[in-house]
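Lecture notes, unit on protein representations.

Consider one protein chain, 225 amino acids long.
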Amino acid sequence: MNMEMGVWILLLIWCLGVQGTFAFELEKPQYAVVHEESDFEVRLYREMTWMSASPVQEVSFEKVTRQGFHRLFQFIQGANLNFSRIPMTAPVLTSIVPGAGPFESSGYIVRFYLPTKFQDSPPTPLPELKLYPDHWDSHCVAVRKFSGFAKDENIVKEAASLATSLSKSPWADISFDRGENYAYSIAQYNSPFKIFGRLNEVWVNITGSVSDQCQPLLTLLKSAS
């Protein structure tokens, strides 16, 4: 059995197990919406910890997301030094490392949001999985939602649409937080076996004051009025 087929089998097992008892929603990162437009919104996320697959230089977003999730799925199924089984959460986040695309994109990091129980003390993954805990401070994120499946041919278009929207907003000159090691992220909330009503998002960190609810600089607000 090749690795890609193994990934799909693992996903099917997870999907059947979860949907058979889906009387609850998967845990998600907590945030507050602080600004809303017709085609994007700005969220203030609380601090949080992800388990991340080490960066991969790969042409295909779809391929690297499957491969990264395969490693993360092994981790949550007990491939860690604590032998802990970890509940599934959402979204699965694929961050695009800076390069030449929208927001200067290239390469990928696939991330799993750790449930509240494991936020402060994540289980240590087995070394061969090449995973690491990644703590994020509270920060501001611009988000564009889109439906259907996140694929190689549409994620760049969706990211470019968010970039265009931000260029016309008060965050025009400060939209990309260059202090991060990635350009933008694609958040996927559904299993690959859900056909209708799918939710995906483009995330890009913005430089706004967390203490002031992610608002941009006052001078930019004045210039946009």
